[in-house]
Structure formats: structure tokens, C-alpha cells
Design goal:
Elements: H1 2-24, H2 31-54, H3 56-76
Helix pairs in contact: 1-2
């Protein structure tokens, strides 16, 4: 039950931040792009509990860390 409440709280905070960002845009020309990007972030936010259940969150984090380390080594060379 706590996980569901936490997810609802995260979505509510995300929605408030989304509305703030949309109101701060200087014009309406970029609104569709910002909405698209924020929609993708919302999908990732909603998929986060599924990733935790399936154990993919740790795997994705580990792969990202390995990739960052490899890029750091390449920059040093």
C-alpha cells in the first residue's frame, strides 16, 4: 500500500512541476516539444515500480555506470 501511495505522490509532484515548466515557457512554439519530453519522463516515472519488481532497475543502473566508466577511460587515453 505504501508503494502505491508513494507512486501517486510522485506523479502529483511531477504534474505540478510540469505545469510550472509549461507556464514558464516564453512562447507557445516550444510547448509541443516540452510536452513530448515531459510525457516521456512521465512514462519512465510510471514504469519505475515495474522495473523494481522485475529487478531491471539495478541492471540498468549498473550498465549505465559501466558505460560512464568506459567513456572516462577513453577520454583519459
Amino acid at each position: 500500500m505504501g508503494g502505491i501511495l508513494e507512486m501517486v505522490r510522485a506523479v502529483a509532484v511531477f504534474y505540478l512541476l510540469e505545469q510550472m515548466v509549461l507556464h514558464l515557457l516564453p512562447g507557445r512554439s516550444y510547448e509541443k516539444y516540452v510536452r513530448f519530453y515531459l510525457g516521456l519522463l512521465l512514462v519512465l516515472l510510471l514504469l519505475q515500480p515495474i522495473f523494481k519488481i522485475a529487478g531491471l532497475a539495478e541492471q540498468l543502473d549498473a550498465e549505465a555506470l559501466v558505460e560512464q566508466l568506459e567513456q572516462g577511460v577513453e577520454e583519459i587515453r
